[in-house]
C-alpha cells in the first residue's frame, strides 16, 4: 500500500475513528486501526467490539492495499507533524510515514485479525440531526456508567407515530425527551448504548451532518448510524428496560419556578462545602424562594438564598449536588419548574415552557434532621 494524503484530511480522519479504539483491548488487534487504500480514497476502521467506526477520506493511492497499525501511536505521531502532505507506505513488516523532513517506521498487526464489519447498504430511516442532537444530549447524561448493570448504560429509543422518545436512568435519576419526526412512520424500539450516542453526536458535528441515517442489522443485533463519509456501528443492549413511568409522580404538593442560571450558580457555590459530606445539598423551599445549604464539619458550612416563585407547602429536601449540576448544565429552558410531593419523594424538574418536552427526575437523599 502506498498513499499520499493531506495532513488536514488525515488529522480529521484520525480524530473521528480514534474514538472507536479499545482502551483495554481483549484482543491486541483492537488497539489498531485498519487502513484500506483503494479508488483514490483511504478508508479507516476502528472497533472495540461494542462501537465500530468507519471513515472515508480522499487520498492519492499509488498502490492499493491495507494495513493494521497501532491507533494511538499513529494518531499522536500525525498530530505532532508540521507539514501539508504525508506519505504512507505499508510493507509486510511495517508502515512507513514520511514528510519532506520527517520519517518514521511503525510496527503493524495482521489485517486478517481485524474484526469484520457487517454490510450496511440499505438505509431505513433518516433522522434530522438538528432535532435529535439536543434530545440525545439531554438524556445520555442520566445513563449509568456501571457495566455491572448493562441495561442502565443504554438509552431506550422508541420511534412511533412520527415521534422519537428517549429515556435513560441510572437508578438515581431519570431523563425523558420527546421529538417530533414528521414523515417517519416506521416503528422502532431498541436500547442503544449511551456512549455510542455521545460519539455519534460528536462525529456528526465534526462532519457537519444534516441528517443521520439509521439502519438496524437484525441478525447481527446492531445499529448503524450513517453520516457523511462515515458509518458508526453499535451493538444493541439486550434486556428489559425499567418501567420508568411508574416512578414519575402524577401530582405535587409544592411547586417552584426559578431562574436556571441563578440556581446553577447557587448550587455550584454551595457544592464547595458539600464535597466532604457525601455531596449532599439541602434545599429548603420557603415562601420567597429556595434556601440552599451544605455542611461539612471539618470544612465549614455555607448557605445561599435564591428568589423564586413558590406554591404549596414549605418543605426541605436533599439532593446529590452532582446530579443537580448535571441537570442544570443540560437544562433547555431559562426558567425551571421543580415539583415535589415531599422530602422523600422524587423531585420532578421540567421547563416552564410546555412546548419543551424534557422531563427529569432526581431521587432525594434521606438525611437526619
UniProtKB/TrEMBL annotation:
<dbReference type="GO" id="GO:0009360">
    <property type="term" value="C:DNA polymerase III complex"/>
</dbReference>
<dbReference type="GO" id="GO:0006271">
    <property type="term" value="P:DNA strand elongation involved in DNA replication"/>
</dbReference>
<dbReference type="Pfam" id="PF00712">
    <property type="entry name" value="DNA_pol3_beta"/>
</dbReference>
<keyword id="KW-0548">Nucleotidyltransferase</keyword>
<keyword id="KW-0808">Transferase</keyword>
<dbReference type="InterPro" id="IPR046938">
    <property type="entry name" value="DNA_clamp_sf"/>
</dbReference>
<dbReference type="InterPro" id="IPR022635">
    <property type="entry name" value="DNA_polIII_beta_C"/>
</dbReference>
<feature type="domain" description="DNA polymerase III beta sliding clamp central">
    <location>
        <begin position="127"/>
        <end position="243"/>
    </location>
</feature>
<dbReference type="InterPro" id="IPR001001">
    <property type="entry name" value="DNA_polIII_beta"/>
</dbReference>
<keyword id="KW-0235">DNA replication</keyword>
<keyword id="KW-0239">DNA-directed DNA polymerase</keyword>
<protein>
    <recommendedName>
        <fullName>Beta sliding clamp</fullName>
    </recommendedName>
</protein>
<dbReference type="Pfam" id="PF02767">
    <property type="entry name" value="DNA_pol3_beta_2"/>
</dbReference>
<dbReference type="GO" id="GO:0003677">
    <property type="term" value="F:DNA binding"/>
</dbReference>
<dbReference type="GO" id="GO:0005737">
    <property type="term" value="C:cytoplasm"/>
</dbReference>
<comment type="function">
    <text>Confers DNA tethering and processivity to DNA polymerases and other proteins. Acts as a clamp, forming a ring around DNA (a reaction catalyzed by the clamp-loading complex) which diffuses in an ATP-independent manner freely and bidirectionally along dsDNA. Initially characterized for its ability to contact the catalytic subunit of DNA polymerase III (Pol III), a complex, multichain enzyme responsible for most of the replicative synthesis in bacteria; Pol III exhibits 3'-5' exonuclease proofreading activity.</text>
</comment>
<dbReference type="GO" id="GO:0003887">
    <property type="term" value="F:DNA-directed DNA polymerase activity"/>
</dbReference>
<comment type="similarity">
    <text>Belongs to the beta sliding clamp family.</text>
</comment>
<comment type="subunit">
    <text>Forms a ring-shaped head-to-tail homodimer around DNA.</text>
</comment>
<dbReference type="Pfam" id="PF02768">
    <property type="entry name" value="DNA_pol3_beta_3"/>
</dbReference>
<feature type="domain" description="DNA polymerase III beta sliding clamp C-terminal">
    <location>
        <begin position="246"/>
        <end position="366"/>
    </location>
</feature>
<keyword id="KW-0238">DNA-binding</keyword>
<dbReference type="InterPro" id="IPR022637">
    <property type="entry name" value="DNA_polIII_beta_cen"/>
</dbReference>
<feature type="domain" description="DNA polymerase III beta sliding clamp N-terminal">
    <location>
        <begin position="1"/>
        <end position="116"/>
    </location>
</feature>
<keyword id="KW-0963">Cytoplasm</keyword>
<dbReference type="InterPro" id="IPR022634">
    <property type="entry name" value="DNA_polIII_beta_N"/>
</dbReference>
<dbReference type="GO" id="GO:0008408">
    <property type="term" value="F:3'-5' exonuclease activity"/>
</dbReference>
Amino acid at each position: 500500500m502506498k498513499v499520499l494524503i493531506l495532513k488536514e484530511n488525515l488529522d480529521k480522519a484520525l480524530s473521528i475513528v480514534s474514538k472507536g479504539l479499545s482502551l483495554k483491548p481483549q484482543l491486541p488487534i483492537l488497539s489498531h486501526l485498519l487502513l484500506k487504500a483503494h479508488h483514490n480514497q483511504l478508508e479507516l476502521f476502528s472497533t472495540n467490539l461494542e462501537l465500530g467506526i468507519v471513515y472515508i477520506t480522499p487520498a492519492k493511492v499509488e498502490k492499493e492495499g491495507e494495513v493494521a497499525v497501532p491507533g494511538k501511536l499513529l494518531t499522536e505521531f500525525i498530530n505532532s507533524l508540521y507539514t501539508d502532505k504525508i506519505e504512507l507506505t505499508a510493507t509486510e513488516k511495517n508502515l512507513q510515514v514520511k514528510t519532506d523532513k520527517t520519517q518514521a517506521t511503525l510496527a503493524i498487526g495482521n489485517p486478517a485479525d481485524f474484526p469484520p464489519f457487517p454490510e450496511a447498504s440499505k438505509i431505513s430511516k433518516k433522522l434530522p440531526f438538528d432535532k435529535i442532537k439536543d434530545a440525545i444530549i439531554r438524556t445520555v447524561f442520566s445513563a449509568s456508567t456501571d457495566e455491572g448493570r448493562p441495561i442502565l448504560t443504554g438509552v431506550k429509543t422508541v420511534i412511533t407515530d412520527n415521534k422519537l422518545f428517549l429515556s435513560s436512568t441510572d437508578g438515581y435519576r431519570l431523563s425523558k425527551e420527546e421529538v417530533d419526526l414528521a414523515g417517519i412512520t416506521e416503528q422502532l424500539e431498541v436500547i442503544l448504548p449511551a456512549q455510542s450516542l455521545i460519539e455519534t453526536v460528536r462525529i456528526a458535528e465534526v462532519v457537519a451532518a444534516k441528517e443521520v441515517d439509521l439502519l438496524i442489522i437484525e441478525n447481527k443485533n446492531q445499529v448503524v448510524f450513517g453520516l457523511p463519509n462515515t458509518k458508526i456501528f453499535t451493538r444493541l443492549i439486550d434486556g428489559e428496560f425499567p418501567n420508568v413511568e411508574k416512578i414519575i409522580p402524577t401530582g405535587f404538593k409544592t411547586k417552584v419556578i426559578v431562574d436556571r442560571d441563578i440556581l446553577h450558580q447557587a448550587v455550584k457555590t454551595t457544592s464547595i462545602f458539600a464535597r466532604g459530606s457525601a455531596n449532599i445539598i439541602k434545599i429548603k423551599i420557603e415562601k420567597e424562594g429556595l434556601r440552599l445549604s451544605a455542611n461539612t464539619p471539618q470544612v465549614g458550612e455555607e448557605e445561599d438564598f435564591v428568589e423564586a416563585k413558590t406554591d404549596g407547602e414549605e418543605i426541605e429536601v436533599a439532593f446529590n449536588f452532582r446530579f443537580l449540576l448535571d441537570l442544570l448544565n443540560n437544562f433547555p429552558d431559562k426558567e425551571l419548574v421543580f415539583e415535589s410531593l415531599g422530602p422523600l419523594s422524587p423531585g420532578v424538574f421540567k421547563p416552564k415552557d410546555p412546548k419543551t418536552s424534557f422531563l427529569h427526575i432526581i431521587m432525594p437523599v434521606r438525611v437526619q434532621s
